[in-house]
Design a protein that fits this description.
This protein has 396 residues and is an alpha+beta fold. It contains eleven helices and 13 strands.
Length: 396
Amino acid sequence: SQNMSSLIKPRIIWIAKLKKFYAKRDKYDSRDIERLHQDDTWVDNFLIWRDDIVDDTLKMIDESFQWRKEYAVHDLTESSFPKLMLDVGAIFLHGYDKEGYKIFWFRVKLHTKDSKTQFEKKKLVAFWLERYAKRENGKPLTVVFDMADTGLSNIDFDFVRYIISCFKVYYPNFLTKIVIFELPWVMNAAFKIVKNWLGPEAATLLKLTNKNEIQEYITAEYLPPYMGGTDAFKYSYPPLVDDDFQTPLCENGPITSEDEAECKEVDTDNKDNTDTNEGQALNSKKANTSEQTPKSEECDKLDSKTKNAKKALTTFKGSLLHISPAEELHFGSKETAEKKCLIVLTNVTKNAVAFKVNNAIDGIYIRMCVCFLKFSWVLTCMVFSFVRVFFLKAQL
């Protein structure tokens, strides 16, 4: 990886110089030029998708940037589309595949070829992709073409080719696989055309499935009953089917902002023994809509002095774990100091996450333990005031 990095860095510098020439030509949205300045990962994705061939990468960036300006990608909102188009539910994001990637659904039977609405439909695809890319920082997704009950009147080759171009050119390194569900036999020839559009390497991402095979890629949890699944989800609008966009969390939602309730600590005078037992058990569980966290109960027991001594929660949002508070624990002043504080860790992936906890007292000892969090579980760690340093590292 170090060798690859040494090859990529000079090319990024070259691109950085070349983009000044691009900007003068007034071909692109200035926001994309600015991002090219600041986001090396974005450039890396273009390079990776073009096998680290710089000339091809530059052509791809040029084509992508022109498309982004033509479609005004940065400015697309719900109001950019007729409500009827959003009501139909032919295109939306919902659920996750077995690898934890978001699923981008195309319900082909709800699509009708119409030249009058073609451009709007293409913009709708761009809207969802850009919305997801910004919220999930470019994390790849899986496309599902649901072709159940589809006829020839629903097939629009120009639209399909556009969708493929979105992943081949406009959103590089953004596609994990294309799952095609129940392709009608009369469309086998069309399938070969699509494979040719993708190219030999990308064509390996195509997965033809039926009701018996689709669970090789997506669990029943995120498949509707007609696909052999158990997902009771039904598309409706409004609101947009955001599905939180973050990888699955407990239904009660993550701790997210500095403005949330200052619920941090339980009264320690009457609950020392109980708290110790609960802290050792760590009380990890998968939440659902009918379950409520003990947060509100703890808030009711807050001592006013403790409440005033502490700041609002902040949260570090990593790709694997959300950690709250983000950086520091506040035990209060000498006069109001608490004996312990809480750290809340939330697994935001579809996989089990292993993380390492180091705690130390300067010059005395360092202790380490390794813990695991299953999908959607929340872990509460109790930290006592004699611990001065607390480090968290997470990896799959």
